[in-house]
Amino acid sequence: MRQRIRKGILAFSVLMFPLTFFFLSPYVIVLSATTGVINGSAMVFGFLLLCSILFSRIYCGWICPGGAVQDLISGANKRNWNSKGKNLSKYIIWAVWFSFILFLWIKHRPLKGEFLYLYQMDGQYMMIYAIVMTIIYLFTISTGRRGMCHSLCWMAPFMVIGETISDFLHIPRFRLKPNPDSCVSCKKCTKECPMGLDVSHMVKSGNMDSKECISCLACVDICPKQAIGFGISKKRTH
């Protein structure tokens, strides 16, 4: 039932994507910064960072329309796309992109906030939307499950930073909780993970923390022995 609800929310998010695309755009935030404006996308990215301090990457697994689109496409290519090198690329892209935004904000001080700045549903908007959707489609088809989340996503680093802040300050946040003694190594959790993580190994090791985990709870719901739990807790110290 829980996964039906999650997939239903993601399906609705995809339907609303033409309207919400503006607030998730990596381009509009740059365009707004050139005029000293903190626009809606900047506010949304900041909100996601703050939320991740407590709720980790739940947004990615339950709400993100880009992730939902990839889940739909992954039926055509279920190959896992997950490694340190592939995951690193999104942080390099994010660092260059966000450094440029900070430069523009500093250059065009004083800043002002305007949530709907530049928001306009016109032909150019829909053209950009179509281009981005095509990129998501082609990249996912050529890489595999949530390939864009692993390698290109400009929003994930904000939430990873939020998780890192939470752990550094010992703030309890949403996380998976393994029970290694209950695991029978059926590896259903690994097969079900939309991010291609080796969940079975994570359970056996007693450490479920992963910066690539999107808290979708698919592994929790597929496990026949309830070897994976979840809740709000501090990072385990060994």
UniProtKB/TrEMBL annotation:
Domain of life according to the entry: Bacteria
Pfam family, one: Fer4_10
A cellular component annotation (GO) from this entry: plasma membrane
Residue stretches making up the 4Fe-4S ferredoxin-type domain: 174-196, 204-233
Protein name: 4Fe-4S ferredoxin-type domain-containing protein
Swiss-Prot/TrEMBL keywords: 4Fe-4S, Electron transport, Iron, Iron-sulfur, Membrane, Metal-binding, Transmembrane, Transmembrane helix, Transport
A GO molecular-function descriptor: metal ion binding
